Fold this sequence. Notes:
The protein is an alpha/beta fold.
Amino acid sequence: xxxxxxxxxxxxxxxxxxxxxxxxxxxxxxxxxxxxxxxxxxxxxxxxxxxxxxxxxxxxxxxxxxxxxxxxxxxxxxxxxxxxxxxxxxxxxxxxxxxxxxxxxxxxxxxxxxxxxxxxxxxxxxxxxxxxxxxxxxxxxxxxxxxxxxxxxxxxxxxxxxxxxxxxxxxxxxxxxxxxxxxxxxxxxxxxxxxxxxxxxxxxxxxxxxxxxxxxxxxxxxxxxxxxxxxxxxxxxxxxxxxxxxxxxxxxxxxxxxxxxxxxxxxxxxxxxxxxxxxxxxxxxxxxxxxxxxxxxxxxxxxxxxxxxxxxxxxxxxxxxxxxxxxxxxxxxxxxxxxxxxxxxxxxxxxxxxxxxxxxxxxxxxxxxxxxxxxxxxxxxxxxxxxxxxxxxxxxxxxxxxxxxxxxxxxxxxxxxxxxxxxxxxxxxxxxxxxxxxxxxxxxxxxxxxxxxxxxxxxxxxxxxxxxxxxxxxxxxxxxxxxxxxxxxxxxxxxxxxxxxxxxxxxxxxxxxxxxxxxxxxxxxxxxxxxxxxxxxxxxxxxxxxxxxxxxxxxxxxxxxxxxxxxxxxxxxxxxxxxxxxxxxxxxxxxxxxxxxxxxxxxxxxxxxxxxxxxxxxxxxxxxxxxxxxxxxxxxxxxxxxxxxxxxxxxxxxxxxxxxxxxxxxxxxxxxxxxxxxxxxxxxxxxxxxxxxxxxxxxxxxxxxxxxxxxxxxxxxxxxxxxxxxxxxxxxxxxxxxxxxxxxxxxxxxxxxxxxxxxxxxxxxxxxxxxxxxxxxxxxxxxxxxxxxxxxxxxxxxxxxxxxxxxxxxxxxxxxxxxxxxxxxxxxxxxxxxxxxxxxxxxxxxxxxxxxxxxx
Length: 856
């Protein structure tokens, strides 16, 4: 008979709950009993609750420690005991030894929820949901608690007796309409993780701890979970070393408690410092319990991580550290000595656990996974609850990620967070989407602008920008050689020139033309984009941010060619800029790198920007528009938005910042006031259809604690959407392999010895530093070699760099080449791998993706 058919049977004799094993010793023999482990976890939950702020405790219901203690009562069941402890069961109840474990439910979390449900007399409760989900997913207990599939009435009675025994120690589990099931599930899960750590709660080999509460407090503290200890009463100047300007003061004074606060202000005007100081005041006053700073990319989060770490050194001394949370954060940990990777030190290493630390900086993806269908999404909810959450550069997300961001903001507010949104280029419509009741606010055209939505009400107030500037604007139909000519002339005159292209291929072409046009060695010239391996990209970023940063030894003339990787949160200060046509908000972000810092003397009298674009006023059809924009550009940015940006900017000769920012944004994204040309209307309709599709996909990805998480708990799993997915490939100079072992010389010259049986941290670091993202369509069928199976879970092929730089895979040419000066380059159609040139012509140069190239 199948398991599903046994629920109507009368059941079988039960092993007493006091004799049921819950944890195995190292040799597989019975270790802790179920009740002992439940007591451990209950005490850990008590210790965790003591370091939470009161308003977060209010989200956990009447007795969260009692719920945590009951998390494993489902292990008192024949399915679990027969599966893991059959010999012990045979000794206690010989008649059970003949029963097949396959006939009984083995998912103990499901049985635990059914038991709690029965103890409440039926019905779904937050405590039951939390217990049922504590292994990352939740299955619906479809049968009665005493069903045969769970062991029948005798086993049900033993589970209820254990619940009563735990209630005598931890108090009865109560239901509460105020309880947030996701936050409570997170508490139960974290308490179980710590309570299962054998450093503190050995499964065998030592007597039980007498003072269990003290051991639980020790475990929680050593795992890094403690209330932040910040120095109170520090002034802004004491923290950051300079006096705040009026806009910063206005914003800091506005942030008075949990709620949503939006700061719209120009690039480079200290929004980050204003947000950090507001967070400092909230944490030191006990309103919030920590900080998470979320950014669009790994690069931007790495940069802000350094600033937040400096901030914490001032406000906490050595009493706090900031955890970096994104897919490659472990590489940064390794650079600091690898302590977090040592045995026994991994507890906070996984990204999903990094949000549990009091202070964190990382990609927005880590926070977004609190609201999408990934395993353990509720752990992220628990980690974020009650914190100050800063969301920076929110204008940079497409409709898919933006829709999830709106859901995240509502979820954070429900979890008593203070949410601070920062942007230089937010449209009114996008701001309204963040608000619960935007209709209560008047349309705000002021800039800078502070908007708030709290329990006390909603309001919007203007503020003053710390400085203003004028920029000369010119739209020019330049070939690549003309771009180089203008850049070389300016650099020869001593100017630091920044050229920003929309695609890697265009950036490489501009760079090649500059090299050909300039006298050899006349001035520094460089190229930066996402298609360099990590080690080389770090070198390039460091050298150029030092040269063109606020304090660096500024060269007497240079040309730096880059893609969107320099668009946000990167401290580059150019004298003169050339940029491809991009949407207005992106052009304004790029302008944030122009005359970024006040300087006593520059080699030019005024700031100027040349926007490279063909004339779009003579367009007659959509195909013609795409051809004039350049098909690669229309894969990066929406065709209609590029056309509309041209219409807005074509009459601009002098741009006044920040005064003109609001008008430019609203004109670009406003509903058209008059009839559009047919081709523009067609492009606009295509944009609307895509937006609706992405919105539907985002809605389908939303998490529900009552549902069934179906996606991997992995950064980018469902937080970004791309029509052209990428695969990371290892770039190597040579490989000597037997299939299961290999000696690899990587692109940086480092040698690693790898095999299928071991994972060596230093080798893992080097392999990841030699990864380059490649469009999946260029490497069809590519797989991770067996000798790298310990190092990569996703498919990660190895590309061999031949003597001429061309890259091969399994002995076949890929149509790609690599060198340290230009990065990964497209050389030809990959016809040899089964592609036709015309099939891929429209995406050959779609190297940026328009979302987040650093996270590919």
